[in-house]
Recover the amino acids of this structure.
């Protein structure tokens, strides 16, 4: 097995195929990771979320990263890390940015809208209205591990 | 689907079944995530790594987190986040701590030792000697999403 850096174009293809990633944020140099479902367009990840720790932290410190991988087995995998900036998509709910984000996400993630609806109903708390945000990608790098007979 | 917090004991069971997680570290409030294979014992994750960005960052700032999930499908998953402290396991290679870490990791991860050997041979650079480290778990929390018919 060998591990090699991959080109930015390969990174973008992995992001384009993906929908599940891990979002990292940090406050006072304490990192925090949550799994997220996203919709990717060049230079942006779009994400729908409830308000919680990650939103509070990203409002304080918009420097974030998103890591996405494709793991076939322990010796064949690729991992992309994108550094970016948190941008909350503004109210009102029918603003062009939120409408665009909603359309992209609904293609993949009906279930998630349902989950938020359920959670909202359950706790009866307006604070968990859905938040749309996007991450502007500032830079990205990737690694790929290949089996001994298929070095990249 | 509903999303609920899970008890610490459930978190520990998920960590005990797992071997793949995502390690988060941060420097100057920029987060960074890498996938890692680990061996878990109560209160510690043991990890084998080559020297690279994550090691440099954790030496500067030992506050890290490890996120581990079990994703069955989009409405049935669990995610655990453990906050912890980076501790590099000391030289020499046959110190009790490193021997313990190596034994735990070798049970699961022969492939990874091979990967490091290959990489070392390839770039012919002593700086990529393997590093053993562990993360002391300071706190952990978890969430579980359940389908509508199987609320936890």
């Amino acid at each position: 097995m060998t591990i090699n850096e991959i080109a930015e174009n390969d990174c973008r293809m992995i992001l384009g195929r993906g929908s599940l990633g891990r979002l990292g944020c940090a406050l006072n140099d304490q990192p925090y990771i949550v799994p997220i479902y996203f919709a990717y367009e060049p230079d942006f990840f779009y994400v729908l979320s409830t308000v919680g720790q990650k939103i509070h932290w990203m409002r304080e410190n918009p420097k974030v990263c998103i890591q996405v991988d494709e793991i076939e087995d322990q010796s064949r995998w690729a991992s992309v890390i994108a550094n970016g900036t948190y941008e909350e998509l503004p109210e009102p709910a029918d603003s062009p940015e939120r409408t665009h984000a909603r359309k992209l996400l609904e293609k993949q993630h009906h279930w998630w809208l349902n989950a938020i609806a359920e959670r909202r109903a359950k706790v009866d708390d307006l604070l968990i209205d859905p938040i749309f945000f996007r991450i502007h990608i500032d830079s990205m790098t990737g690694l790929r591990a290949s089996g001994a007979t298929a070095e990249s």
